[in-house]
Amino acid sequence: MLCTALDTMQAIGAEDYVLEIGNSEFFRSACSAVALSEEESSQLAQLIDRKSLVELQEYLQTLKIDAGAVSFFAQLPMLGGREEVLDRAEEVSFNDALKEEVKTLRNLYRDLKALGYEKHISFDFGKVPHLDYYTGIIFEGYVGNVGASVLSGGRYDSLLNKFGRDLPACGFSVKLDCFDRYPAEGRTKDHEDLLS
User: Fold this and answer.
1) Residues 125-135: what's their mean pLDDT?
2) Tell me, what's the pLDDT at 191?
3) How far, in Å, CA of 134 to CA of 122, rounded?
4) Among residues 15, 60, 12, which one has the least CA distance to residue 36?
5) 32, 2, 16, 20: which is closest to 112 by C-alpha?
6) Are the C-beta atoms of residues 138 and 54 closer than 8 Å to each other?
7) Which residue from 173, 171, 172, 179 is spatially nearest to 196, judged by alpha carbons?
């Protein structure tokens, strides 16, 4: 699925595209480990997602969690980048479950690198799901000169159960309206075919 997302961005003809990958379980697992309520987790997710560092630090001081967990959550908005961020994420992980989530992304990166996608991959551990149904890998695709993600998706293993089928699932959607912002001089025939 990630390869298909990467190939979709390549189809618009730009060389400067990147797939930013996160893991919703990284945040959820940390919240569960320190017994945060649903309301506390939701507030924390919003602050991390907005990268409101001052507000985040103030809110963390109101929670009854230890210093290691405070440090972990405070660093999440800044845990983004290329392969080297995986080492930083492992260092701030305060239990084995979090380290396993990092290992999952490390293995995924190794596979994508072997397929030749290395220069188009980045990670964002501060990527928290906007929708509750995501259950693992989440990702967004970006193309140079477009100010928003052009596609987004992830794993949502519990969503289909709401419709009577308990099946694992993974997918993404392409935001075609974002491609309208791609400069005309940078468009190729592949790009125009994708829009039509």
Assistant:
1) 71
2) 47
3) 19
4) 60
5) 2
6) no
7) 179
